[in-house]
Design brief:
Layout (H helix, E strand, L loop, with lengths): L1 E13 L6 E19 L7 E3 L7 H14 L5 E9 L9 H16 L6 H15 L7 H8 L3 E5 L4 E6 L5 E7 L11 H5 L2 H12 L3 H16 L4 H9 L4 E4 L6 E6 L3 H5 L8 E6 L6 E5 L1
Parallel strand pairs: 3-4
Antiparallel strand pairs: 1-2, 1-11, 2-4, 2-5, 5-6, 7-9, 7-10, 8-9
């Protein structure tokens, strides 16, 4: 039995660390997972066959959580194939995208069709168990499963708000080579930003995505030591609708009209960082059964 799934990375509108409420929007950087499940009566505990080049705590926990929920029993052998276009530990939700893709692939291989929220909640469980997320990042997981702006209460495990993204908008990404530390290491640092975080959440609840991204970026820049203020001002003076640090960075995301994205990309620093132009996701994550 084989199941395949494709989910996506995302950009941050409001980081959940200060308040527990986060907002993100999916972008077309895909993760593809293929999981094959068999039973081996000679084995009692599950056997996970994970390629060495993608064997991480998130990958292993995703398979374990998926098997426990969708394919329980003894003697399970799970074989994984994984491909991701999401830069790792750069603030573009690579862990959430990987976990949701694996979870959905396991579910489809086992003959289940879980709701996006169920997959998102399992992904949040994976993030906490693997030690890569302090909040579980339900907003990130849901944004990689469904198109649009998605706002969640990560403490209660609930969706707070959904909104469509303007079809004429796209994203320019500035992705430095440095990576960020796991969010549990930074929870105490962000706890002092609760008041500013509440202003950011209120802007997102009101649908003022530009203000939410700006307020969120100011919080993250203060906490992480980034200096993107001048670059954000320059991007917005040349037509960017909104811009800000995504996740814990160091990636900076600028939202703009699709016909202005190339121009905005030319404003990014001339250095070794990757510069990407990507659309927002327009379709939900997909999963299916392979013969």
């Amino acid at each position: 039995m084989s199941g395949a799934a494709r989910t996506f990375g995302a950009i941050t509108i409001a980081n959940a660390l200060p308040t527990g409420i986060g907002c993100a929007a999916g972008i077309a950087l895909p993760v593809d997972a293929l999981v094959t499940l068999t039973r081996d009566g000679a084995r009692r505990s599950p056997t996970l066959e994970i390629p060495r080049d993608c064997h991480t705590a998130v990958v292993e926990e995703s398979l374990k959580v998926g098997l426990a929920r969708f394919f329980p029993g003894t003697g399970t052998v799970a074989r994984l194939s994984l491909r991701s276009e999401v830069p790792v530990a750069r603030g573009l939700k690579s862990s959430s995208a990987v976990s949701t893709a694996i979870l959905l692939a396991v579910a489809r291989a086992a003959g289940h069709s879980p709701t996006p929220l169920e997959v998102g909640l399992r992904s949040a469980e994976v993030g906490r168990r693997a030690g890569v997320s302090a909040t579980g990042a339900l907003d990130d997981a849901m944004a990689g499963l469904e198109p649009g702006f998605i706002m969640t209460d990560n403490v209660r495990g609930e969706i707070v708000r959904r909104a469509k993204v303007d079809p004429e908008w796209g994203v320019v990404l500035y992705v430095p080579r440095e990576s960020h530390p796991p969010s549990p290491n930074l929870l105490s640092a962000f706890s002092g930003e609760r008041i500013a975080g509440e202003r950011c959440v209120r802007a997102a609840l009101d649908g003022d995505w530009a203000r939410a991204m700006r307020l969120n970026s100011e919080i993250v820049e203060r906490t992480m030591g980034y200096s993107y203020g001048a670059l954000r001002d320059r991007l917005e003076s040349h037509g960017a609708i909104a811009s800000g640090v995504s996740g814990l960075g160091p990636t900076l995301a600028a939202v703009g009209p699709t016909d202005r994205l190339s121009e905005l990309g030319q404003l990014l620093p001339s250095d070794e960082a990757r510069k990407l132009i990507v659309p927002f996701t327009r379709i939900p994550a997909v999963g299916g059964v392979e013969a």
